[in-house]
Amino acid sequence: MNYNFHWKPVFNNLPGLLEAGMLTLQVAVLSMLLGICIGMALALIRLHVRGPLRWFATTWIEVARNTPALIQLFFFAFGLGALGLYLSPYTIVLAGLTFNNAGYLAENFRGGLQAIPETQIRAARSLGMTAPQAYLRIVIPQVLRIVYYPMTNQMVWAVLMSSLGMLVGFRELSGETQALASTTFRIFEYFSVTAVIYYVIVKIFLGAAHLIARRLFRY
Amino acid sequence: MNDTLSFFSGFGPRDFLFLGEAALRTLWISVIAISIGTGMGVIFGWLLFEGKLLATLTLGPVLDVFRSVPLLIQLVLFYNFAPMVGLNLAPFGSGVVILAIYTAALVASVARGGFEAVGVPMRRASRSLGMSYWQDLRHVVMPIGMRAVFPAWVGVALGVMKDSALVSVLGYVELLKASQILITRTQQPLLILALAGAFYFALSYPISRYAARLEERWEQ
Amino acid sequence: MITISGLHKYYGALHVLQGIDLSVEKGEVLSIIGSSGSGKSTLLYCINGLEPIQQGQVTVDGVDVHAKGTDINKLRQNMGMVFQQWNSFPHLTALENVALAPRIVRKKSRAEALDIAAKQLEHVGLADKLNVYPNALSGGQQQRLAIARALAMEPGYMLFDEATSALDPELVGEVLDTMRLLAEEGMTMICVTHEMSFARDVSDRVAYFHQGVMEEIGPPAQIFGDATSAHTRKFLANVR
To answer: CATH fold of C25-35+71-239, please?
Structure first.
């Protein structure tokens, strides 16, 4: 191997990379929060509503799950542009990730909701709880436990997926890395450091999720 | 017919053919990477299951890295790293290598779950019949365990098929890269993205439905 | 007092209850027996308003259960229900299982709800299981937990839907003992049951259901000793 590694310029730019890493984390978390809300709504619609609304939910879920995330992102970037709707790179990535998260989470939620026996609601109602109370106090907490690990997986996925921002001009961690690397031609060095940052982000998140689970689910 | 195309021109039949060929290349690179990756993944999964401490300490963390770093970054890194060690791989080769390793990392944990799904009592039963370790593995553990995780494997394989779109960044003209080329020329992104998306969907949706139905049936 | 008159209930085309007339006085213990599919569990669901009815009337203390303006949640607070599958809430400890409804339905303070819950758990013999999650309890213990949960709402009536049918034989006794205790304390109870000894020894009256019709009702001595309906006699001969 006669390649001379030059790590110094990368380390000089480390603060910038870490800042971009925060942006990655931010867009991933935001897309998860939105994805959880929309995904729950899609799951409930798919389970309980008939008509065009259900068709809409099913289409969303199946398209999100059965096409590449990159195509979904390109749709928000270039497809909407053709319709005269130009979004900022940040919005493109947020919308794309949210679309994808919501679709996958909806199926997780649907499975979780179906796993709670009807008799649990019946028992709650027989104690005089209203339907919303039964959902909030009895069903949702149990669903949360069932979908907790799939949800943490989806969050990891959201972090990894956000790297696609690089391809639509968003300067999150990958985009920033590419921008810096292209000025110095130290592509390998820059992307190695970035890989480490991703790894650390994922591990810290999973560790935190594990700790929270231990506190949350004692049964 | 006036075939001297201007730089920007509409979407024509030839472009359809171009997309079709690219779709075949997507299939091709996916099938190769998934096949190699699955073979490697099952072996890794078995090592993790049997090798206990040593494999857990070495192989486990290495595979974990491939699951914790974006595939896009892996591709860029490997594409830039290969020439440094004297490997001159075309985008296709780099893509296959990384996609296969990525598949192997995902399949390893799925396969390990399969090995674990075959309980100790069942294995004792087969060993008590006088089967050797390998006979037990070949005739009892593999059929039962791999069947248990087959739906999960289908999920991994479909995921890799969709993720193969990322090889486009290395310049390999698979379906997505072809779409980008056509979008630049025809300026019809909606139509072309819809076509490309429809291809992935037509492949992924029936297979995922089939796997889900299998899983449902086996659960009963 | 619970009064049922001319009650008809359909599941689609299936006519599960075909004109039931029945009233249960305060302090009375009524056992309902009959083969499965005879509509006896459905009757309990109709009394509790968990199932809609197609014809007739159910009133509890003079309030029409199925009338439009009725506050069904309020009414249910007065009717404790125990199911065949005990339906413990798996994400809550025994104490929290019992305290939840008093707190969010009755709007009691947290301390007060926990106090009520502890008392009721002691009542059913689970004083040493307060902070245990249901998955660590036996079926019999979970069923007693379900009874305590219903009692914590201080209901005027208790409805038991085959409370011992899903239990292992050796666990049936402890649940029946708890039900017997309630009967002795003067609780008004309607018990759908397959336990003939319980029906005979504990209840004031026994009703026999056959294919959606109440064939016969009367004191245990009459039903078990001198039933008039051939269906009743045949059923009793088979279960003995």
So the answer is: Rossmann fold (3.40.50)
